[in-house]
Amino acid sequence: MAYPNRHEHRYHFRDRPFRAPCTSVKPKCPGSPREVRFRSRPVRRDKIAPMALGSSDGSPNILPEAPRFPDRPDLTSGDVHVVRICLDVPIAGATQLLDDDERRRASRFVFERDRRRFTIAHAWVRILLGRCLAQTPESLRFVVGPYGKPAVAEAPIDLRFNLSHAGERAFVALALGRDVGVDIDEERPLDVLELANRFFAPAESAALRGMPPSEQTRAFFRCWTRKEAFIKALRLGLSFPLRQFEVSMTDDDSAQLLRSCSAAPNMLGCWQIAQLASESGHAAALAATAGNWRVVRWETPRWPPSATRRAEPSDGLLAIADR
User: Fold this and answer.
1) 305 lies in some domain
2) For residue 48, what pLDDT is reported?
3) What confidence score (pLDDT) does residue 63 get?
4) The domain spanning residue 186 has which CATH number?
5) Per-residue confidence (pLDDT) for residue 17, from 0 to 100
6) Residue 286 belongs to what domain range?
7) Residue numbers in the chain where pLDDT is lower than 70
8) Is the dihedral of CA 298, 234, 199, 21 positive or negative?
9) 3-class DSSP string for the chain
10) Residue 317 is assigned to a structural domain of this protein
């Protein structure tokens, strides 16, 4: 069974739906995330370059080029793999990789553009999971939790994943034995102050009102993606109230963006939220259970597959938190 519609919640902001998928993200590590091309020899932390997270003035950012996801990734409990997907790049035989339920869901979209994005995103999820599990993409079957978050049925390892897409971009987060949540959204004109009053914690709403109007839209989407990533990682969906936890509103590369959680104060030490590098005009965030972990960034692999080697230590682009 493929993941059902109910794992994506829709808020109707004005006249267009604002989609918020359920996901999970993680840990609590003091210090700031850093990004480095991982080498086989030790990396001196005083030589690590900051992550390219985009400028707060809205100028275009250029993401460091990440390697392609390998045929057989080296999965460890200390890594969270995040794969960026370009949904405007077609992949051969995408529809054939989906199961009957996914194809039915794709057929319900009115616009071809939305059918294409759904099909490509879910095909890539299957390809990536198949490489991690050494199974063919079309053979995978899914089960869902009580709040709609999918998991691979009868997986040989405890592999957890989450998908989020916005426009022509998507992220897939993969982790071994660790709950993760990821969220990406496109920045666009909205009545952000009204929406913040409805969905944000009082301190977040007040912080947004205190910002210059030119910064409010970007700050709103930073906050929204961080909150969505957190509730997706929790696997509780909207049963966990958005107004009862607070995240940072700033363009912040801190390793912990969760500020408080009145609904469950112990959450602060159990979960971590971090900003993800994203292209200009987008905001993205990752959440996961607390622990000693790092983010390994990838681009999508070549498809159909060709003879490629096993991943080497130099293959990953890591976002490392100082500890």
Assistant:
1) no
2) 27
3) 63
4) 3.90.470.20
5) 41
6) 20-36+61-299
7) 1-64, 305-323
8) positive
9) CCCCHHHEEEEEECCEEEEEECCCCCCCCCCCEEEEECCCCCCCHHHCEECCCCCCCCCCCCCCCCCECCCCCCCCCCEEEEEEEECCCCCCCHHHHCCHHHHHHHHCCCCHHHHHHHHHHHHHHHHHHHHHHCCCHHHCCEEECCCCCEEECCCCCCEEEEEEEECCEEEEEEEECCCEEEEEEECCCCCHHHHHHHHCCHHHHHHHHCCCHHHHHHHHHHHHHHHHHHHHHHCCHHHCCHHHEEECCCCCCCCCCEEEECCCCCHHHHEEEEECCCCCCEEEEEEEECCCCEEEEEECCCCCCCCCCCCCHHHCEEEEECC
10) no
Total domains in the fold of the chain: 1
Q: What is the pTM of this model?
A: 0.76
- For residue 278, tell me if it sits in a domain: yes
Return the pLDDT at 62: 52
275 within 8 A of 257, measured Cβ to Cβ:
yes
Phi and psi at residue 258, in whole multiples of 5°?
Answer: -80, 120
| Predicted local distance difference test score (pLDDT) of residue 5 | 41
Instruction: Give residue 196's identity as a one-letter amino acid code.
Output: A
